[in-house]
Design a protein that fits this description.
Number of helices: 4
Helix content: under 10%
Strand content: over 45%
Number of strands: 21
Radius of gyration: 26 Å
Distance between the termini: 57 Å
Largest sheet: 10 strands, antiparallel
């Protein structure tokens, strides 16, 4: 966020007697100030510059890991009213330089010297961040103060059209399953594992994986509850590494599921392909088209895996029959 000088972008309106002691003359947050957020409550976002702080307290539903819609190649911002309900904004000064614990913990230090609540409108844009390999690594957020008026009860300062520096939330999962082979526990479960993650496909028709049924597209649309639908695709994360045996036989003591994502849209296709080593055999590839996963936490988030390089689908792999 560029340094904002009162003479250029802030309008001071005196609503009471001016005693000459005007402390809030500028937002002095240079381009080196990147917003930070609390890991256990990402709705608390703050910028620190010495003893000055710009603090946002937002509904976490505004900060889901879901990209903003794109119109004509331009991300469309979500407009947020600030100053009422759960969405608040403050300019503060402290007796000494505050730290993460000041906003994310209960340290109570340093002492709060002055607070100016703000009312107005923010614009929030969320975009995906992907590595050079195309894999999703996080989400970047851009917050712009479209217009806001800060008041200490006697004086007011109005700020317009000012963008904070973008900041990134790094994902704590990778959806990375490099092995080509898809294992099976039974004729209705195909899966892959990679360290603390698993990708599991449950099928209603056991003949799908044996190649004895007529192959058809398997719709993942969320039109049924998980307990009512026998075709389900899950992405799971655990606190410790899991093996193939763990998926089939149960988790060992001390291993617990920490995240559960269910595919709510997209299509699974099981495609017969020639065996590269034995022409008398037929392999079956599992392909995911436009799969979108939703986590089971609150608030819910969405994730769509990147297509396998050079393909128009995500290749789950070949069934190991």
């Amino acid at each position: 966020m560029k340094k904002i000088f009162l003479a250029l972008t802030a309008l001071v309106l005196f609503t009471g007697c001016d005693d000459g002691d005007m402390t809030f003359k500028t937002f002095n947050f240079s381009e080196n100030n990147i917003p930070a957020f609390c890991t256990d409550n990402r709705g608390t976002i703050y910028l620190i510059n010495g003893t000055e702080v710009l603090l946002f307290k937002l509904d976490t539903n505004l900060l889901l890991n879901v990209p903003s819609p794109i119109v004509n190649g331009i991300p469309q911002a979500t407009r947020v009213a600030i100053g009422s309900g759960t969405n608040r904004m403050y300019y503060r000064t402290y007796s000494n330089t505050p730290n993460t614990a000041t906003f994310c913990g209960s340290s109570g230090t340093p002492n709060l010297v002055e607070e100016w609540p703000g009312n107005g409108t923010l614009l929030i844009i969320t975009t995906e961040v992907r590595g050079t390999d195309g894999k999703l690594t996080g989400y970047q957020r851009q917050i712009t103060i479209e217009s806001a008026t800060f008041s200490n009860g006697e004086q007011e300062v109005t700020i317009t059209a000012n963008s904070l520096r973008a900041f990134t939330e790094i994902l704590n999962y990778s959806f990375d399953f490099p092995e080509d082979i898809v294992a099976t526990c039974s004729t209705t479960l195909a899966y892959k594992t990679n360290s603390v993650q698993s990708l599991e496909l449950y099928l209603e028709n056991p003949a799908y994986l044996s190649g004895t049924a007529a192959l058809e597209d398997i719709n993942l649309n969320d039109d049924l509850l998980p307990e009512e639908d026998n075709n389900n695709l899950y992405f799971r994360k655990f606190n410790t590494a899991v093996t193939r045996n763990n998926i089939c036989s149960g988790l060992p003591s001390g291993t617990v599921q920490t995240q559960l994502w269910r595919a709510i849209s997209g299509t699974v296709k099981i495609i017969p392909t020639p065996d590269s080593e034995d022409s008398s055999r037929t392999d079956y590839e599992i392909r995911l088209y436009n799969a979108v996963f939703e986590n089971g936490a609150a608030p819910a988030e969405l994730y769509s895996p990147e297509n396998t390089t050079g393909l128009d689908y995500y290749l789950m792999g070949k069934v190991d029959n």
